[in-house]
């Protein structure tokens, strides 16, 4: 009845009461997340089958949804926020990030233009400038610099796509946007680069065959001489090389491409260099790990994911370009209904011109909450701890004659395997994950099956890492 009187809307007092309950529920989830089996056990279709076939005709109370989350949703959750989550890379969150995101939802602004909510643009500009300082990135990326600037993208995949489009328009004098792509453009990345590069090349209509996967060295880093040889060969064949995506911290093994050498080649041949540091970017918070970012000042664009290792809820990729006009020229379209004085006068940033979608949420708030809560010092503390534990873990692996390390491990990821081979290593992974006590994932390096132990979950402590090694080591006896 209440609902009818109020046009079905939730009454303000009901919102407040239900909101408190939801926050309590999330707080309880975080307090107990360690008790769940890390990896969801449901079969395909099971969650779908548990939900009603048709939508409710009459509305219900939000507080009635909470028990259904326990019943119908939690069984299908893989607990990414568990301290025992060591798979892939982390996608961690934190109290301040969740609350910042809640404020963003509460304000509900759509920040496509500066004029549609100046704070949405300007807080973001400031956060990206803070991050430049925090990571020791070059000053030409600052929003306050003459030509450069930074923006939040939904993912590293989108950041690379935007870099690729800016590079394409620069290489073709804006003609690709006008006429379609008619030139034999080619681009380059290593055979260890993340799969999104190939996807972006497909999205951009460049053709997968025009993406060259460059060979790597024994540490899985791109071979600069192989890159240059391929560029020269392509030029000789009448192609137009225009773009390189290098990686600081590959997904398989956190390998670091030699950016200074690659940048020199890009300069010699006139190619745009994008650097993808999705996971490892966060390491640059600590001066002692900034060597991983040598040469980044020579890149045309750079991206990393606070939504991986910097306690900020997905989605939040920080993306910078040295020349913002190259980016804006490739993406800007101005329909009459969005014309406004501030934009026309060119005094403001309209972030809709910096990425593919028009609309955008106020994502900078969660970054602001995170950076203010932890301070630079707090974020550095956690990176240092995670790296130190990974070094300990690697030492335990090394000291055990049944195992071998298969890649350098200067940061938070350890790649290892059983010397007895692929089948045994795969069995070990299966048993470890079926135990429910930890979740690890795998990759292939040099054609061999490899286990990845990635530390970076916000709740992980040293004793968790120790227990995980004990479990892996015990299970190895039976593999
Ligand atoms: C995780 C990862 C990505 C993909 O990140 P999204 O933000 O999910 O697109 C890209 N590159 C590297 C090196 C990664 O590790």
TrEMBL record:
Keywords: Decarboxylase, Lyase, Pyridoxal phosphate
UniProt cross-references to Pfam families, sorted A to Z: Pyridoxal_deC
N6-(pyridoxal phosphate)lysine: residues bearing it: 308
Cofactor: pyridoxal 5'-phosphate
Any single GO CC term annotated in Swiss-Prot or TrEMBL for this entry: cytoplasm
Enzyme Commission number(s): 4.1.1.28
GO terms under biological process: amino acid metabolic process; carboxylic acid metabolic process
Gene Ontology MF terms: aromatic-L-amino-acid decarboxylase activity; pyridoxal phosphate binding
InterPro entries, per the entry: Aromatic_deC, PyrdxlP-dep_de-COase, PyrdxlP-dep_Trfase, PyrdxlP-dep_Trfase_major, PyrdxlP-dep_Trfase_small, Pyridoxal-P_BS
Family per record: Belongs to the group II decarboxylase family.
UniProt-recorded name of the protein: Aromatic-L-amino-acid decarboxylase
């Amino acid at each position: 009845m209440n609902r009818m009187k109020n046009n079905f809307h939730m009454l303000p007092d009901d919102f407040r009461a239900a909101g408190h309950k939801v926050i309590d529920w999330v707080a309880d989830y975080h307090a107990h997340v360690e008790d769940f089996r890390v990896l969801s056990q449901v079969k395909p279709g099971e969650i779908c089958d548990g939900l009603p076939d048709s939508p409710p005709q009459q509305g219900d109370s939000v507080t009635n949804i909470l028990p259904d989350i326990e019943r119908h949703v939690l069984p299908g959750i893989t607990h990414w926020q568990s301290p025992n989550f060591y798979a892939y890379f982390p996608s961690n969150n934190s109290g301040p990030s969740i609350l910042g995101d809640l404020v963003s939802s509460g304000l509900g602004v759509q920040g496509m233009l500066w004029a549609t909510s100046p704070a949405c643009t300007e807080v973001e500009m400031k956060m990206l400038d803070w991050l430049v300082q925090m990571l020791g990135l070059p000053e030409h990326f600052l929003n306050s610099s003459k030509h450069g600037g930074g923006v939040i993208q939904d993912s590293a995949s989108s950041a690379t796509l935007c870099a690729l489009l800016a590079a394409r328009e620069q290489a073709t004098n804006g003609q690709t946007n006008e006429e379609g792509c008619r030139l034999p453009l080619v681009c380059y990345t290593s055979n260890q680069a993340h799969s999104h590069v190939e996807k972006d090349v497909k999205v951009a209509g460049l053709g997968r065959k025009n993406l060259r996967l460059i060979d790597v060295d024994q540490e899985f880093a791109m071979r600069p001489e192989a890159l240059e040889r391929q560029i020269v060969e392509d030029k000789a064949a009448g192609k137009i090389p225009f773009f390189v995506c290098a990686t600081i911290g590959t997904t398989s093994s956190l390998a670091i491409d030699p950016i200074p050498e690659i940048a020199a080649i890009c300069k010699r041949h006139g190619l745009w260099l994008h650097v993808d540091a999705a996971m490892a970017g966060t390491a640059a918070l600590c001066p002692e790990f900034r060597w991983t970012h040598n040469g980044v000042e020579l890149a045309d664009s750079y991206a990393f994911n606070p939504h991986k290792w910097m306690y900020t809820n997905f989605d939040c990729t920080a993306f910078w370009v040295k020349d913002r006009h190259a980016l804006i020229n490739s993406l800007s379209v101005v329909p009459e209904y969005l014309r406004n004085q501030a934009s026309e006068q060119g005094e403001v940033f309209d972030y809709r011109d910096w990425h593919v979608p028009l609309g955008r949420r106020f994502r900078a708030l969660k970054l602001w909450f995170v950076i203010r809560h932890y301070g630079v010092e707090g974020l550095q503390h956690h990176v240092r701890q995670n790296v130190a534990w990974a070094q300990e873990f690697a030492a335990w692996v090394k000291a055990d004659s049944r195992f071998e390390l298969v890649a350098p491990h200067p940061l938070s990821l350890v790649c290892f395997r059983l010397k007895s081979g692929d089948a045994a290593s795969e069995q070990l992974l299966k048993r470890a994950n079926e135990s429910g006590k930890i979740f690890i994932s795998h990759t292939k390096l040099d054609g061999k099956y490899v286990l990845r132990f990635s530390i970076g979950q916000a709740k992980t402590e040293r004793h968790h890492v120790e227990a995980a090694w004990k479990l892996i080591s015990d299970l190895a006896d039976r593999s």
